Amino acid sequence: MKAAKDFTRGSILKHILALALPTMASFMLHVAFNIIDTIFVGRIGADAIAAVSIVFPVIILMIALGSGMGVGSASLIARHLGAKNVKKANRVIEHMVLIAIVLSAVFALTGFLFAEYLFSLIGATPNVLELAMDYSRWIFGFGGFIFIFIAFGNVLRAEGDAKSPMIYMGISVILNAILDPLLIFGIWIFPQLGVEGAAIATVIGRGVGSILLISHVLSGKSIVTVSLDKFKYSFRIIKDIFAIGVPASLSFMLMSVGMFILTRIIANFGPEAIASYGIGWKVESLGFHFAMAIAIACLALVGHNFGAGNVKRARKIVWISSFLSLSISTAAGTLIFFTQKFWLKIFTSNQLVLDYTFGYIQILAFTFGFVGLAIVIESAFQGFGKGMPKFILTVFRLGVLAIPLAIILSKVLGLVGVWYAIAISNVLNAIVAILWFKVSNFEK
Questions:
Q1: Residues 279 and 38: beta-carbon distance below 8 Å
Q2: 311 CB-contact burial (10 Å; exposed 0-12 / middle 13-18 / buried 19+)
Q3: What are residue 160's phi and psi, to 5 degrees?
Q4: Reported pTM
């Protein structure tokens, strides 16, 4: 077992970068996972891209459940390690495994029962629906890999190890990149499976990464470890995980529902519009994944310092993290804005899809910094043990701002009105988040 790192001393900026940089690499690899699928699927046609785009909110929902569980566990583990109590941290990860097993089973059953109805409700045409079902059945059946990978990755980052999840994600992405063309187009001895092949490649890639993460923890290479033979159920630990995890999961689930609703609004403008939203979202994720990496570093560092009773240092960590996130996300958005015409064509040759996607990026690119700022502030609340602010801010951004504005503006401005609605919600949400944190009291 490794010795716990002390994040209550030394350079705050150095600690943030030490955790955030490998995490940024992990997230960029995660984005590459989705982009690689989109590039190869895009060679099949617009219907195939639309099918994967329709399933994407389902993947977001799975990530929501895994991230909520992982964030709740990571917040507790960081605070326990800050208080120098490794034994309690070990008990948290044992209960996290139990939650992961239950979620995997429930999600698989629910997906198989309701997927076709859900995709039809969104507005999938018969051709798109058939392709979406081919893709999603594998995602539903092996969703446990997503839960395990996200949860264990968050735990390792909470203890200060961001490099291991990065390495295992890299292996997953490389494997996915190799298998994608082989299974989609039937190269060499492999069958031609189309979009179903992309799903199988994704499942295999994530599966290998998950097994490597589990092996890492069980082999004693991490500070925390799992001893299921000594497992003793504790309702208190489950409650503490859920106190952070449930609002976090609900926030991510609400994001998924929000994407479903926005996709349904966008579907009124045709499958090309849905495809452009899917591509635009993936491009946008290039911007805010930098912020998510800084946010996870912020959560871990705040948890360690708050657990050690140093609230003043914890607050300072949040402000430094916020400035970094705002700066990097704004720079990423600016770069994407000025270079989009040179590389968007790798996704599709459909001119209408490209035109719609150009409009998406032109309007949203300069709001990336606001998204990055809000992400860090929400994670800071979680590091202090407060789960509800993230949920409330998500409700505000989607339920109060983005969706109502999208309904109204789409009738007035067409598809571009949806893009404006999302942009306005990004800016106003960040302003509310930072004001809320500024007036909050975290003294024990």
A1: yes
A2: middle
A3: 105, 10
A4: 0.77
Residue 63, C-beta contacts closer than 8 angstroms, at least 6 positions apart: 146, 150, 252
Q: Kindly state the tokens that stand for 228.
A: 């299921």
DSSP type of residue 4: P
**In 3D, which of 7, 384, 316, 9 has the Cα closest to residue 161?**
7
CA neighbor of 16 nearest in space, from 154, 162, 184? 162
Please tell me what DSSP assigns to residue 222.
Answer: S
Per-domain residue ranges for the chain?
A: 12-438
Rounded-to-10 torsion of CA 340, 343, 29, 429: 20
DSSP 2: P
Instruction: Read off the tokens for 176.
Output: 């996915």
Instruction: Please say whether the beta carbons of 201 and 183 come within 8 A.
Output: yes
State the CB neighbour count (10 A cutoff) for residue 43.
Answer: 14
The owner of tokens 């035109």 is 355
Cβ partners under 8 Å of residue 7, min gap 6: 15, 82, 160, 300, 301, 304, 305
Name 128's Cβ contacts closer than 8 Å, sequence gap at least 6. Answer: 47, 50, 51, 54, 119, 271, 274
Closest by Cα among 211, 357, 336 to 272:
357
- Of the two residues 255 and 305, the one the predictor is more confident about is 305
Predicted confidence (pLDDT) per residue in 339-366, tens digit: 877 777 777 778 888 888 888 888 988 8
Cα dihedral sign, 352-262-277-55:
negative
For every residue of 139-205, DSSP letters joined together read HHHTTHHHHHHHHHHHHHHHTT--HHHHHHHHHHHHHHHHHHHHHHHT-TTS---THHHHHHHHHHH
Is residue 22 a contact partner of residue 163, using CB atoms and an 8 Å limit? yes
